Amino acid sequence: MVFFTTPELLEIGGLPFVSPYEKPTRAEALKYYRRVVDTYDLHIAFEEKVLSIQHEDEGGEQGRRPESPGGGGEMRLFEVETRSARGVRRIRLARFVAVAIGYYDHPNMIHVPGEDLPHVSHFYTEPHPHYRERVVIVGGGNSAAEAALEMYRAGAHVTLVHRHAALKPTIKYWVRPDIENRIKEGTIAARFGSCVKEIRPTSIVITRSDGEPEAGEGCGAGGAGGDVNGDEEIPADAVYLLTGYRADTDLMCRAGIRLTDRQGPIYDPETFETNVPNLFVIGGAIAGVETGTIFIENGRFHGERIIEVIASRAGN
Fold this sequence. Notes:
Elements: H1 26-40, E1 48-55, E2 78-84, E3 89-94, E4 97-99, E5 120-121, E6 134-138, H2 142-153, E7 157-162, H3 176-185, E8 189-192, E9 194-200, E10 203-208, E11 232-235, E12 238-241, H4 249-254, E13 279-281, H5 296-299, H6 302-313
Parallel strand pairs: 4-13, 5-12, 6-7, 6-12, 7-8
Antiparallel strand pairs: 1-2, 2-3, 9-10, 10-11
Helix pairs in contact: 2-3
């Protein structure tokens, strides 16, 4: 993976990110972020899933502490319940919580039959297991384009399916000519203006897209529901549904955070504090369905502002 930005625009914590390349690689970024953790001796609990965020006195118990972001009484504590990879549960108490969960763990489902089959994935990792296999990639953005190119060069027979008449305009400028030329010469097959109707154990059924569905690339998500211009069955040993992702709104809603009509949390843009006092959102977690609005270059400044707010309340 190569980042779509320069090293200096990835820097955090005042530490320089040195790279010999104009755009750093995944390996360089991992090394840099480990150095940030070591430099500031950050305490990290790995392989723990947050199950809930709630105030320690929720449930109507007596002795409720006042909500006091600016003083005027003892501050209510949060209980953050987690479960480790080995099944161990624990509860941490916190005066402040920042939700920085991103959105990649929750793919946009396309809601068609066969989406749960074992050879179907919403996440792409590497191309090599698909050498000489027939692979169908659903999507028309950066993820789909880059996966198609990698798998083609690893010896896979790739077909790209996208509901629109052309690839998305947001594709990286150095990726676009590569994928467009491969499609033009026929080494990567493409089916534009098409949506997925069904996924079968050894094939995928697509049909012409009737309009532009709001979300997803499947007919069940708002595309054509029948044989508009005839179905096509494409052989497939593997199917990748690279149709985007969104934040875990369930966790935020259970914590008491209200959402906008675009499924993003309601928060103060100056402080990133939600409607729940002392509970903040940061980075991609604030995006809702507008995931293209938050990226590393602007999201990396959110934490600094939140820490300033927390520091100003530390003595309360």
